[in-house]
């Protein structure tokens, strides 16, 4: 039975006051889930930025390695060593771990197992 069907059946057996109380509790759960969704959106955005930074660093590293190879192949050993020395000294971007407070990240079914099937006084 779908959530909509479960709710309709449960509400049929509830008083108006119980239905109103249930609706307010559902609103609280929805607000909590909305806050969690916002955190997840922020995490996805941060991950996208970190991946872009990482990819740019990888591409630049690949270009520099090819330059070193090209210089070495054309007998420009000193220039190749100098570039390799620069490469070794370069500071690569560091992605900090994302600090996530998971204490509020719960599934609706964990927060309120009977959300779609409340009792007459829920």
Give a description of the structure.
This protein is mainly alpha-helical and 122 residues long. It has one domain. 70% of the residues lie in helices and 0% in strands. It is built from 4 helices and no strands. α2 runs antiparallel to α3. It is rod-shaped. It starts with a helix and ends in an 11-residue tail after the last helix. 2% of the residues are buried. The model has no long low-confidence stretch (mean pLDDT 85).
**Radius of gyration computed on alpha carbons:** 28 Å
Mean pLDDT: 85
Give the total of beta strands. Answer: 0
Assign a percent range to the helix content.
55-70%
The profile of the biggest β sheet is:
none
Query: What is the approximate shape?
Result: rod-shaped
Secondary-structure element series = HHHH
Domain module tally = 1
Q: Roughly how many Å apart are the termini?
A: 20 Å
Percent of residues in beta strands? Answer: under 5%
Strand-pairing-aware structural class: mainly alpha
Give the helix tally.
Answer: 4
Residue windows where pLDDT falls under 50 for at least 5 positions: none
Using brief descriptors, characterize the structure shown.
122 residues; mainly alpha; 70% helix; 0% strand; rod-shaped
Question: Could you give the topology of this structure?
Answer:
Elements: H1 3-12, H2 16-73, H3 77-89, H4 108-111
Give a brief description.
This protein has 122 residues and is mainly α. It is built from 4 helices and no strands. The chain has helices at 3-12, 16-73, 77-89, 108-111.
């Amino acid at each position: 039975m779908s959530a909509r069907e479960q709710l309709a059946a449960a509400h049929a057996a509830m008083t108006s006051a119980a239905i109103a109380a249930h609706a307010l509790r559902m609103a609280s759960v929805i607000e909590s889930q909305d806050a969690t969704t916002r955190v997840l959106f922020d995490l996805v955005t941060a991950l996208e930025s970190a991946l872009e930074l990482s990819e740019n660093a990888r591409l630049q590293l690949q270009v520099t390695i090819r330059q070193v190879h090209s210089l070495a192949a054309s007998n420009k050993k000193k220039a190749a060593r100098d570039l390799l020395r620069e490469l070794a000294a370069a500071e690569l971007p560091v992605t900090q771990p994302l600090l996530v407070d998971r204490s509020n990240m719960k599934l609706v079914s964990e927060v309120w197992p009977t959300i779609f099937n409340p009792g007459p006084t829920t």
